[in-house]
Every structure is written in C-alpha cells, then in structure tokens.
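Board notes (copied after class):
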Amino acid sequence: MKLISLAFDLDSGTVRDFPHVFHYGGYLFHVGSVLLGPWISYHDYISVINQPSERIFVSSSLSLFD
C-alpha cells in the first residue's frame, strides 16, 4: 500500500526522486501509521519529519485542547 502511495506521489510530482532506502524504511515502519493510525502519503510524512521540533510540539499540544 505504501509503495503505491509513493508511486502516486512520484507520478503527481509532489516527490521528485525515489527516496533513500533509510527514508523509505522510516516511512514504512513509522509507528504512527503502522500500529495506531491512519495511512499518510509519503509527501505528508516527509513534510512533518522536516518541520522544526518546536512547531510539531506546539501544534500537537494545541490539538489536544480541540
């Protein structure tokens, strides 16, 4: 399923090149989508991973109060 997602991202142009094996492995075995949560596209995964850690903490903390 995640390989198909990456293929769609490559075809649509949101991801330019096939990711490094370690980046793709991180996407495959990401705890948030393997054990607990919804499926996310590779593009969304990379955009969250590349955010500064302060911004992730603030946005996740604010979502707890919604």
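Comment from the instructor: Residues 6 and 12 are 10 Å apart (CA to CA). The first helix runs from residue 2 to 12.
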